[in-house]
Structures are given as C-alpha cells and as structure tokens.
Amino acid sequence: MVKTLLEAFNTAEYPVVGHGKRNVQVLKDTFDHLDGEIDSDIYGTGTVIEDFQTKIAAYLGKPSAVFFPSGTMAQQIALRLWCEEKGSRKVAYHPLCHLEIHEQDGLKELHHIEPVLLSDKDRLITLDDVKSMEDGIACLLLELPQREIGGQLPAFEELEAIAAYCRARDIRLHLDGARLYEILPYYGKTAAEVCSLFDSVYVSFYKGIGGIAGAILAGGEEFTKQSKIWKRRHGGDLISLYPYILNADQAFDERLPKMEQYYRSAVELAGLYNSGIEGVTTRPLVPVSNMFHVHAAFPKETFETILIAVYEETGIGLTGNVRDAGDGASYYEVSLGDRYPAIPKDRLKQAFELLHEKVKQTAK
Amino acid sequence: MVKTLLEAFNTAEYPVVGHGKRNVQVLKDTFDHLDGEIDSDIYGTGTVIEDFQTKIAAYLGKPSAVFFPSGTMAQQIALRLWCEEKGSRKVAYHPLCHLEIHEQDGLKELHHIEPVLLSDKDRLITLDDVKSMEDGIACLLLELPQREIGGQLPAFEELEAIAAYCRARDIRLHLDGARLYEILPYYGKTAAEVCSLFDSVYVSFYKGIGGIAGAILAGGEEFTKQSKIWKRRHGGDLISLYPYILNADQAFDERLPKMEQYYRSAVELAGLYNSGIEGVTTRPLVPVSNMFHVHAAFPKETFETILIAVYEETGIGLTGNVRDAGDGASYYEVSLGDRYPAIPKDRLKQAFELLHEKVKQTAK
To answer: Where are the transmembrane segments (chains A, B) (predicted)?
Structure first.
C-alpha cells in the first residue's frame, strides 16, 4: 500500500518540523513530576489558575490576565468587549484573520459583530490601510506574525505608528499574539514592549510553547473581569482547567528561552528551500519567526509524490500536509521547534539535493 | 485562628460526601497507567475522541454523540439548534434551570433565545405545566433530577406523558442529564430507556462519574453534526481534549456500576438527618438519587458554627458549604460518592447525636 504524505512524515526517521508528537506522553511528562496534592482550580479560582494568570500578565506587561480553553473563545470575547465599550458592532482585521476563516463565523453568529476586512489578503495591513478605515470601528485586530501569509511582520516602527493612530482616535488595538513569543527575537523586543502598543492581547500555549491547549487573554483589570463573565457564557469556565494550565506553565518555562533558536532554525531551513529548486520558494524569503510557508509552482499531488520519495530515500520528513494553492500551485506551512537541532546536517543537505533533483525530473 | 467551615470539612478525618479531593492525583491516577504513545485527538477528530463518543452514544441509545468541554456549551447549543429548526426563539425550562441561574445568561446574550419559565421554582414541572405552555416553544428542557430543589424526580409515567405530549406537538424535548446515571437505580431503567423519551441529551462526567471535566451531547446524526459547528463557534473545539476524555472514559467504567450504591448511601444518610433534629430536614425526604438538600430553620452562620464543632469533636465532615436560604434559614447540597462506605457507622451515628444535641442547645 502506498503511504500518504502524513504517514510518510510520521514514520520518517527525522521529522524536521515541530517539537515532537502530539500524544499522551506530553501530558505524562508534565504530571509525572507534579505533586498529586496540588488542588484543582475550581471555576476560574484557586492558586493553580490565579498564579499562572499573574505570571503571564507580568510577562506581557498587562495588569491582568485570564486563562481560556481556546484562543477562539478569548478573541471573540475581546472584540465583543471593545464593541460594547464603543457601542459599535464594527471591528477591523486582515482578510485571513483566524476569526474570519477558522471559526465558523462565531464572531458573527454569536456576537453579531461585523468585521471590516483591511488590506489585500496577500499582504500585511499597512498604516495607510488603517488610515483609510471607515468610521465607527471599535477595535483593530492585528496578528503578529500574519500566519496565513507565511508569518510576515510589519516593521516595528509601522506598528508604533498604527498604535499611535488608533490611540488618538479611540480605536482599541487587539493583538492576536498566537505566535507572539516567536517574533520577539526578530523584533529584539520584550513581550511587554510589543504588548504596550495594544489594549488587549491573546497568546497561545500550544504553538511555539508546545503545550496541550489553552490561551491567555490579557488587558486592564476591568476588561479581564468582564471577560470572565463572557467566558462563563461561552461555556469556557470549566470546573478544572489545570490539565492545560500546569502543562502550559511548564512548557512556557522550558521553551520560551528557545525562541531565538527556533527562529534561527527557520532562517537556516528557508535558506535550503531557496537554494535554486525550480518553482520552489519560501514566504517570506527570510523568515522573521520560527515559521514560513513553502510555495511550489506545481500541484499538491505532484509535490506530495516528490516529498514522499524524498522522505523514504533520506529519512528526512519535511511536512505532513501540503495544501492546494489554486492555479496548479501548492504550499505548506513550516514551524520549527525542538526537533530541528537533532537533524544531522548532512542528511538534511542530502534530502534537499534529492528534492532539487526530483523537482527537476518532474519539470521535464 | 478559627477554621472556616470549608477548612474544617477539608481537614476532617472522614469527609462524608463526594468521591475524594479534586486534585492533580485524579489526573495522575488516570494517566500513570496509559500508554504515552496514544495520539492526541486533533480538533474533534482521532480515535481518542471518536471512540468515546461512539461508546457514550451507544450507552445513551442515541445515533451520535459529541464530546464538549462543558455542559454549559453543550446545552446552549442544543437549544439553539432546536430553535433554528423550528424558526422560533422560545424554549421552556424550570425557573431554577442551570441555564437560567448559573451561566451568566449565555443563552440570552449569545443566542438571543427567550426562555419561558415553567412551574414554580419550589416544585417539579408537571404535565399540566407543559400543557399550559404558550405556542411556539421550540424545545422543552427537563432536568433529571431537578438539582436545585434537592434532586427531585417526576414519576416515570409523568415523564412519558410529557414526552408524548411534546412529540405530538413537534416540541423537542431535551434532557439536562448532568446527573442521569445517578437516577437510573431509582427509576429502574437503563439510560437508553430514559433517553428514548428525549430528542437530545446532555450528560456530565465530573459529577457522579467523578471525572475532571467534560460533557457529551447526544442525539441524531444531523443534530450532532450541526452541534460541532457551534462547538467551533463557541471556542470549544480544542486541538486536544484528551486530558478530559481519557479520564472521563476511565471514571465512567469505574463508577457507573456504583450508582446504586451511591443512591443507597443517600437514602441512608438522609435517614440520619431526618431523625428528629429540631428544624433540620432533607429535601426530598427520601432521596431518589445520590443527592439531597439539607434544610435548617436557622441562619447559615449558626449552622456553620454547629457543624464546625461537630467535625472537630467527631472527625466527621458533613459539608463544606452552607448557603443562605433567606428568612433566617439555610441549606446545603449533599452528593454521595466513593467516600461514604468507608465511614465507620458508629462515628457517623456519634456525629448525628452531637448535631442533634448542639442544635437543641442553640434553639434554647
């Protein structure tokens, strides 16, 4: 039986991307070393949840923070609160914002918020886009990095200019910081320095941090207090969130210091993709975080066949998931993590030589 | 320093109610014995979540089931779906329904559903209440047992009559079965027999079952398929729910056979409360599940002082939480579980003798 790309990736000797398998061992590694006498959080109260919220609030430089089971829940609530404050139903965000394409329109269906889409979907939101926004926008959401276009970032100065513009016009600025930690090495800023430009911030614990699940929403005291009411309304105020919290806390301490390494890995790996393989290129050309997209000028099925052959001959697994980009093109997302440093460089080089070769053969 | 009631309960030699402490050990006990190689569920897919959903659907006698992080989320969604089907915004439920008093009005704020409150808050919904409902009700929610009035149940025949009435009028019937397992011994029915009267059913895994958190919503294929879309909208479609699922699965197998025991414990303990202690009585007088309420004709603070003294002198902890019932009265909820059989009967008897004595002294 022919392997699927995902099977070939999962059984490759050296999967290149990610931290490791998403399996029960992740949880066991956290809890094997924890004292069983630690009390559960109870409906958002208790030391386990309160200490973690305080820790992350301090890290983000915000007065207060609330742990949520998901970013989907946290961000809809953030936008709802800013809309309530302004007495408006309008928010602005990128056309490929998570809320627009991955949440089954929860923002519209549950909160009746009308998003205004800024910029083209193939590029970042600019200061000019923001200046041209219609009146009555309660909140502008910026995602750093902009994941769906390969993880791109505006210059920090442009971000500061956007923040100043919004502040002067009473437009709240919310940060989708699902990958905030991952961009700090490139910006050369602390999380608090970046977050100081924003009124509210969401961060995730299962991307670069590699936890099981969970999110934090941070902002002012009144904002987070109100967010807890909405968390209850959404059904996110679980009796016990500690399985996620204690794991996130441990993963945060373990992986935060490695963000520079993940970023450097991405730059190095993107260099290998951009070494003259016909029709293959990365976006951005030089990554600004631990992620980038690989784009190919040939169809998904062709790319998959080539990749499977490369994995099987070299033991190097580059991705488990190629997507159709339309017009006979394809692409995939790459996020670097704990696995990359363990890949023998000569094996990796060999894999890219073979990729080069096979793409050339296919193009003939 | 004087102990609070909760402290006195938590440090009592023999806490009488519940299964045990809600601490990290609950999770460790589940995962210590599980293989680390078990793959995480991914956004609602994967063996871990699908197998459990299939298992519980079969147990409830429904075609399909979906795991949710919380009952709050599951039930709002169930009612929303039935409202969509009918093209109505009206549902009917008890005045002390969980959705009415414990969810910060999520049903109204997120779904704009208008509940019609049936019956007085001090009694069960009857067939007559149902017959007197206004037109246009999309769904009637019944909670079995009715928790906030001590866990009372209608006769099964009345339930059947209500179901028949609703079916004949295209009113959907939804079961808040947070404590469904706990009532099966009294009804002498299987879960599937009870659920056959309902179009949709929610069950919980952290009450009688004693799991960490989580819920199942069960019903027809199309209903549960639609519920997954709303689960994503609510922010409940987490990348990984396995910490709850694997624990719930184990707790379900372990505790389901003990529901008869928990029920018998409640009947026995209620008998001790109803042994002539002045101003103290249980509701219902004879429990029909593992739960009941203890009502006292004196204020919360008085009751707390008496209870703390009883715990300290006898080592028996009866409750950690007394609530104000208004008009100088007070009450608390009792749920029996794994702890009860281990209590030495003579110590328990001694505690009730002392309770009797101290209440008498206070009344003077």
So the answer is: none
Model confidence over A117-144: pLDDT tens digits? 999 999 999 999 999 999 999 999 999 9
Short-list B202, B235, B239, CA closest to B66: B202
Closest CA to A107 of A74, A153, A151: A74
Binning chain B into helix, strand and coil, the percentages to the nearest 5 are 45, 20, 35
Give the integer Cα–Cα distance in Å for A74 and A214.
10
DSSP labels for B251-271? Answer: HHHHHGGGHHHHHHHHHHHHH
pLDDT confidence bin for A2, thresholds 50/70/90: confident
- Which pLDDT band, with edges at 50, 70 and 90, does B363 fall under? confident
Check if the beta carbon of residue B174 is closer than 8 Å to that of residue B143. no
Q: Which residue has the tokens 């002392």?
A: B354
Instruction: Among A36, A213, A238, select the one facing B239 at the smallest CB separation.
Output: A213
pLDDT digit string, tens, across residues A149-190: 999 999 999 999 999 999 999 999 999 999 999 999 999 999
Using pLDDT thresholds of 50, 70 and 90, give the confidence band for residue B234: very high
Query: Does A212 touch chain B if contact means CB atoms closer than 8 Å?
Result: yes
Interhelix angle for A47-60 vs A242-255, to 10°? 40
Task: Tell me the residue type at A65.
Answer: A
In the block, tokens 């209590």 appear at B343
Query: What's the pLDDT at A58?
Result: 98
Q: Which amino acid is at B53?
A: Q
> B332 — contact with chain A (CB < 8 Å)?
no
* Region B134-159 average pLDDT: 98
Instruction: Supply the pLDDT for residue B2.
Output: 73
Nearest to A35 by CA among B45, B219, B24: B24
- The complex scores an ipTM of 0.97
Residues of A in contact with B34 (CB under 8 A): 24, 28
- Chain B residues whose CB is inside 8 A of the A27 CB are 27, 31, 242-243
What pLDDT, on the 0 to 100 scale, is given for residue A314? 97
Residue B334 has pLDDT above 70, yes or no: yes
Is residue B287 very low, low, confident or very high in pLDDT (cuts 50, 70, 90)?
Answer: very high
User: Is pLDDT at B7 greater than 70 in this prediction?
Assistant: yes
- Residues A41 and B93: their CA atoms lie apart, in Å, by 30
User: What confidence score (pLDDT) does residue A3 get?
Assistant: 86
Question: In the predicted model, is pLDDT for residue A1 greater than 70?
Answer: no
Ordered by where they begin, the domains of chain B are 5-20+258-363 (3.90.1150.10), 41-239 (3.40.640.10)
* CA trace torsion A54, A56, A60, A65 (10° rounding): -60
Does any CB of chain B come closer than 8 Å to the CB of residue A237? yes
Q: Which residue has the tokens 């309008």?
A: A90
Q: Does A45 touch chain B (CB under 8 A)?
A: no
Burial track B241-260 (b if 16+ CB lie within 10 A, e otherwise): bbbbbbbbbbbbebbeebbe
Residue A101: how many CA atoms within 13 Å on its side-chain side?
A: 10
The reply to whether residue A240 touches residue B24, judged by beta carbons under 8 angstroms, is: no
> What pLDDT does residue A146 have?
98
Which runs of consecutive H residues, i.e. helices, occur in A45-113? 47-60, 71-86, 98-101, 106-111
Distance from CA of B256 to the nearest CA of A (A): 21
Interface membership of B68 toward A (CB under 8 Å) = yes
Nearest Cα neighbor of A17 from A268, A280, A284, A299 is A268
Residue in B232, B240, B246 nearest the CB of A103: B232
Q: Tally A–B CB contacts below 8 A.
A: 168
A11 reaches B (C-beta below 8 A): no
Q: For residue B341, is the peptide bond before it cis, meaning its omega torsion is within 30 degrees of 0?
A: no
Q: How far is CA B161 from CA A211, A360, B151, B180, B185, in A?
A: 50, 74, 20, 19, 21
